[in-house]
Amino acid sequence: MTVKSFTFNPFMTNCYVCHDAGEAVLVDPSAATPGEQEAVVAYVEEQGLTMKHLLLTHAHIDHIFGCAFFARRFGLSFRMHREDLPLLARAGDQAALFGVEIEPPPPVTDFLDEGDTITFGERTWRVLHTPGHSPGSVCFHDAAAGAVLSGDVLFQGSIGRTDLWRGSLPELMASIFQKLVPLGDETVVYPGHGPATTIGRERRTNPFLTGSFAPL
């Protein structure tokens, strides 16, 4: 599996095109400008890829800027967890809160839940429901590739914030320790912000996982 990352918008949010055997998935369309959107399209066309799935790890504003564009461009609907529908529905309010603009995302009718699978090429991803950063946060695990796309659940050296709507630190930590840590130390983590890391590195050095972080 090839994982191509793009970092877009003022929030520096990662957008991923993952592909195998000529088929691709797009995860978190953070592309906010025509130039950013066309960079993704150009990569897909240069690689000769057929887009099979459009996926959201969650529906915070910085991850959904390009929903309308990519749904239109690839003729597909985005898939997400039902619990984040209120966030998607209030995309305009989220944008106003941060002083940015967004084209309203199209409706989502195909929902993801724990244990669902995503297939493309010769890859099979398993959906992990990992609430805490948002109620509908999900991660995508490719066991054969030893990789997980973690959205804003786990970062290199940090974790997702929990002070937004229906965020919960206890839920987030449970998601990390019950769903991500058991994937194994060698598992590569592709987060929603920042560089890739591994479960092992975070288990050993991330202050939120080692217990060395003391909240004020």
The averaged pLDDT comes out at: 96
Strand order of the largest sheet: 1-2-3-4-5-6
Content-based structural category: alpha/beta
Helix content: 25-40%
Proportion of residues in β-strands: 25-35%
Rg, rounded, reads 16 Å
What is the distance, rounded to the nearest whole angstrom, between the alpha carbons of the first and last residues? 42 Å
Tell me what the CATH architecture is: 4-Layer Sandwich
SSE topology string: EEEHEHHEHHEEEEEEEHEEHH
In short:
The protein contains eight helices and 14 strands.
How would you sum up this structure, described in words?
- The chain has one domain: Metallo-beta-lactamase, Chain A (4-Layer Sandwich).
- Helix content is 28%, strand content 30%.
- The chain has 8 helices and 14 strands.
- It has helices at residues 34-46, 61-64, 67-74, 85-89, 91-97, 169-180, 199-205, 207-210; strands at 2-8, 13-20, 23-27, 50-55, 78-81, 110-112, 117-120, 123-129, 138-142, 147-151, 154-155, 158-159, 188-191, 197-198.
- The strands form 3 sheets. Strands 1-2-3-4-5-6 form a 6-stranded mixed beta sheet, covered by helices on one side.
- Strand 9 (138-142) and strand 10 (147-151) form a beta hairpin.
- The longest helix is centred in the N-terminal third of the chain and has 13 residues, at 34-46.
- The chain is globular.
- 43% of the residues are buried.
- The mean pLDDT is 96.
